[in-house]
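Lecture notes, part 5. Sequence design as translation. It can be helpful to think of inverse folding as translation between two languages: the language of shapes and the language of residues. The source text, in structure tokens, appears below.
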């Protein structure tokens, strides 16, 4: 059967947050004929196996911690049963499925055509789509956006396939009794923290002495120490050589760490060692679109590739910010530029705030202290620090109190705030407002002029000496 022939102004490959935002704006606001192609579930990584289900699970873990903390405040209760992982995951799945439906409804509202299938380039202007019923469509597009996102990697370790990745975390039907999480980035740290708070014996394997190594040293050191204080098992300076499936639901991990060589039997091994762009099926070679050594698509500040009518955004590019709001903002600005007549519309990638839903939460915007010193010189940098015990912990014994620590990185005579790093209770919600201030170019004097809200942890950021 001959492929169905279609034409459009704007073909978006990938139904994740960035692609959907760009297609909806191009069609709904500017009247472009847009088509979106997705071969999994609408919403991409964030909605299905990322930010949204992760934050829901973090809320459950946070509640578990709050229930333990409540005893210090005079509450007394007994749990009639352990955490019901199965019921929780079913409710979380139902919520995500509802979001998938909302995304599809929004595409219809903005008159974006949606095809569920797998796309591959035939030539730079033509894409073939194999639909769910194995029929094919061939689409000729004036402009093409590649927004297919990424997927988690497995390491080159014998038997690695017996473990799961972050995608598999959300498919676990039963709570593991004992888990090994391998990785030192925010995904590994978040998932290890959730497992641990919900009662799973958690072993976190990291390659160096600290994790979150792209964050400010203060964050690395204090959150690593806090995970150890909480009783998580940290395996530092570690590597893995083999993973065996023992056939009884258990896995055996062969590893080295600071204590030498060892093996460990666990229910689950979760690899969180990085992600790669989801380009394997796209036949990108026929387009001559340039990629870097890690196969990310090269783009400029306007999401242009080296091919005039092909654009890329989100996790398929390597801009250092694999964050959903970044992809959404970049997608909307791209549509404004391509179809809305806004010739200079593009996303400014500086001072993008980000958080880690660890235990405690971490927030960061701007430059780390080492990066600021490298960029501006030691003599032009002044650091303000505040480490304290949040009022939340006032009713607890000393060994039950979590850390709160803030840092301002200031530059020049005016002490412009070029970096802000916070960890402690409430950091995620707190960061958004301070992100606005830093994006506007706030100085230390601007912070000082703001009257403190007492008693809060946030007041420490406007009272630092």
């Amino acid at each position: 059967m001959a492929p169905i022939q279609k034409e459009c102004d704007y073909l978006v490959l990938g139904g994740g947050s960035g692609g959907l935002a760009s297609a909806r704006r191009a069609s709904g606001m500017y009247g472009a004929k847009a088509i979106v192609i997705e071969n999994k579930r609408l919403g991409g990584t964030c909605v299905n196996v990322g930010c949204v289900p992760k934050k829901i699970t973090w809320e459950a873990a946070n509640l578990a911690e709050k229930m333990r903390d409540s005893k210090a405040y005079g509450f007394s209760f007994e749990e009639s049963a352990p955490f019901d992982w199965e019921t929780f995951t079913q409710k979380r799945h139902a919520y995500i499925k509802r979001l998938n439906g909302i995304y599809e409804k929004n595409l219809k509202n903005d008159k974006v055509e949606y095809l569920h299938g797998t796309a591959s380039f035939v030539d730079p202007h033509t894409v073939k789509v194999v639909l769910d019923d194995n029929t094919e469509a061939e689409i000729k597009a004036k402009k093409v956006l590649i927004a297919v996102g990424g997927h988690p990697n497995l390491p080159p370790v014998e038997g690695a396939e017996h473990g799961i990745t972050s995608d598999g975390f959300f498919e676990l039907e039963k709570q593991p009794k004992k888990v090994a999480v391998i990785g030192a980035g925010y995904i590994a740290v978040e998932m290890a923290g959730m497992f641990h708070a919900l009662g799973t014996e958690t072993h976190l394997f990291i390659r160096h002495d600290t994790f979150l190594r792209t964050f400010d040293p203060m964050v690395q050191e204090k959150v690593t120490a806090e995970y150890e204080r909480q009783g998580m098992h940290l395996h530092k300076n570690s590597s893995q050589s083999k993973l065996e499936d023992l056939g009884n639901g258990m896995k055996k991990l062969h590893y080295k760490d600071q204590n030498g060589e060892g093996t460990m039997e666990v229910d689950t091994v979760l690899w969180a060692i990085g992600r790669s762009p989801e380009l394997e099926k796209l036949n990108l070679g026929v387009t001559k679109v340039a990629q870097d050594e890690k196969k990310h698509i090269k783009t400029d500040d306007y999401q242009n590739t080296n091919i005039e009518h092909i654009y890329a955004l989100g996790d398929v590019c390597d801009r250092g910010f694999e964050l959903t709001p970044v992809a959404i903002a970049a997608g909307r600005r791209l549509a404004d530029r391509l179809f809305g007549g806004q010739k200079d519309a593009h996303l400014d990638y500086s001072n993008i705030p980000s958080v880690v839903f660890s235990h405690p939460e971490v927030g960061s915007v701007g430059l780390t202290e080492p990066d600021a010193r490298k960029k501006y010189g030691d003599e032009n940098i002044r650091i303000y620090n505040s480490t304290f015990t949040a009022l939340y912990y006032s009713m607890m014994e000393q060994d039950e109190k979590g850390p709160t620590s803030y840092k301002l990185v200031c530059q020049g005579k005016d002490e412009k705030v070029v970096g802000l790093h916070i960890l402690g209770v409430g950091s995620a919600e707190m960061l958004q407002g301070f992100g606005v201030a830093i994006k506007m170019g706030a100085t230390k004097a601007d912070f000082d002029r703001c009257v403190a809200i007492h008693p809060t942890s946030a007041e420490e950021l406007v009272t630092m000496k």
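The translated text above is only one of many valid answers, since several sequences can fold into similar shapes. The CA atoms of residues 47 and 99 lie 8 Å apart.
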